[in-house]
């Protein structure tokens, strides 16, 4: 490897905090799990490489133009599939969709196709969420030709165990460190995201490994050098945060908005929207204490619309703040926003750029959580929201 990545928080300050300070703040797990991601991306590539022959065989036997592939999960796990789905749909000769486990469980009659050959791709940190189990069982019992691909961070989870009972299924266990100890999904999100990309484009694993090496190097630099800029955004003390993007960045915006909402326990209201859809009502969410974060596209055509919207918001009456994440040096755009966060180095495909954009959003959620007086590792101590969802009663369904 031609770059180094911090491997132990014991030897390093993380985001300006010592280990002792993070423990006192109740943030040691969240901070560590954000900081370790570039290293775990390379470990994830290694795992997929070792499975290359089995993956090729699986795709050869299971995927054709008549196959329906459903990415599924709940919360951040759903956002994994939602964000990578358009890219996978372009490169795989099958029908690829992203449907939340919560929808499959509550409305299977609207979703399931009994006679369609289906692969259910379950993204799951713990593999113990009731909807993950429910979606697995409903599809297993109501689709004639069903295969499961489970990408999970927990070897002891129920989902991994259930899938392993049938030899036609495929289970990928990610590094143990991806099974976040903190409430918010960070390492788990990005490593499941990366696994999905690599799995369905296994023919180009060598080329994609080089891309991951690039983003891992860039991500290490972001975590080392950009946290101060992100902390300044948090220290502006926004009461509302809006994430805006287009294409895969619009879907990533949903995950970053959720991350901030979770980590602040709702003390900072968040929303997300597509660039052009924002004018159609959601723009009314802006007030003087709003921070608008734009995930800049890597496409010149799309960025014409992004520039127009940022210019409009910049010229609007009010004290709202605008921050832009971008891989592109754009002085024209930088001049009309309050903070322009630029990724240094090689420009990578948009869907891979999502991983480094996510680092900024995760860091912002962490800093906001600390500044509003929360403990990031457990931002909801009263237990009304849990790391693994509770309170769901699964009801039998047979079509």
TrEMBL record:
Which InterPro entries does the UniProt entry name for this protein? GatZ_KbaZ_carbometab (IPR050303), GlmS/AgaS_SIS (IPR035466), SIS_dom (IPR001347), SIS_dom_sf (IPR046348)
Q: Name one GO molecular function term.
A: isomerase activity
Pfam families linked: SIS
Where is it found, in Gene Ontology cellular component terms?
plasma membrane
Keyword terms of this UniProt record = Isomerase, Repeat
Q: Name one GO biological process term.
A: carbohydrate derivative metabolic process
Q: Where is the SIS domain?
A: 55-210, 229-379
* Bilayer-crossing regions: none
> What's this protein's name?
Galactosamine 6-phosphate isomerase AgaS
